Amino acid sequence: MTLLLVLVVGGVIGWLASILMRTDAQQGIFLNVVVGVVGALIAGVLITPLIGGAPITSGAFDIMSLFASFLGAVVLLAIVNLFRRGSIR
Predict the structure, then answer these.
(1) What does the pLDDT read at residue 24?
(2) Keywords for this entry (predicted)?
């Protein structure tokens, strides 16, 4: 059940991050889920030690973990855009 929640919440987080970074037109549902879950993993390593909480990949679904996972997804998309386009946006 936790895996299903991580995939659904990761998909929503990836979709919201792709809207913010203006990459939604190039991504489908699968890439949104991948961006959300990988963003949550990045958040677990980089962001949650700074702001506290736990990433959604550990099963925590509070507002701090959702925000950290969203920031991780935005960081992931910024890095991808930097390599693909030469700019963050």
Answers:
(1) 78
(2) Cell membrane, Membrane, Transmembrane, Transmembrane helix
